[in-house]
Amino acid sequence: MAKPAAAQMKHDMGGMSGHGNHKMPMTGTNPILSEGRPLKDLPRLPNQSAVPGVFKAKLAAEPGVVRFAEGLDTPALLYNGTNPVIEASEGDKVEISFSNGIPGEPTTIHWHGMPVPADQDGNPSDPVASGGERIYAFDLPEGSAASYWFHPHPHSLTAEQVYRGLAGIFLVKPKDDPIPPEYGDTILMLTDLRIAADGTMPDSTMVDFMNGRVGDHVLVNGQKNPAMVVAFGEKRRLRLFNATNARFLRLKFENASMTVIGTDGGLIEKPAAVDELLLTPAERVELIVFFDRPGAAKLTTLDYERGWMGPDKPNEAGMILLTAHVSDEAAGAMPPLPAKLRSIESLGNPVVTRRFVLTESMGGMDHGGISMQGMDHSNMSMSSDSMGMKFMINGATFNMNRIDEVSKVGQVELWEVVNEADMDHPFHVHGTQFQIVEHEKNGKISTPFYRAWKDTVNIVAGETVRILLRQDLPGPRMYHCHILEHEQLGMMGTVDVQA
Ligand code: C2O
Ligand code: CU
Ligand code: CU
Question: Of the residues 158, 239, 367, 451, which has the fewest C-beta atoms closer than 10 A?
Answer without folding.
Answer: 367
